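BACKBONE STRUCTURE TOKENS:
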Amino acid sequence: ISNLVESERLPSIIKDILKESDKRVLTETIVGKSPLVGRTIGGSRVEVYTKARILAINRKKKWVFEVNDDTRLMNKDLLVAVGNVEAEKILKDVANGKIKKIWEKIF
């Protein structure tokens, strides 16, 4: 987390939140073959299946902090989420397209 907090990719408000968090901070970039591309957070049920909660998205060098179930996920979005170690692995596999259908992997 300390390396992520020092990262220039994150704005100060996220850095402050990360310093206080007792959960693991996850960052993953969505690639074109991911089942998340073009789907909403709620429609993909990403939190249900990965157990990772998306807090923010960096899209085309702009931060989106007001994410909700209607937020559409796009190719090359950098996701900032919180979750456990297993959530990190699943989110990574979904974001990079290793898991083709998000519902293939359920806890």
User: Anything to note?
Assistant: Helices lie at 2-6, 12-20, 41-44, 46-50, 85-95. The chain has a mean pLDDT of 83.
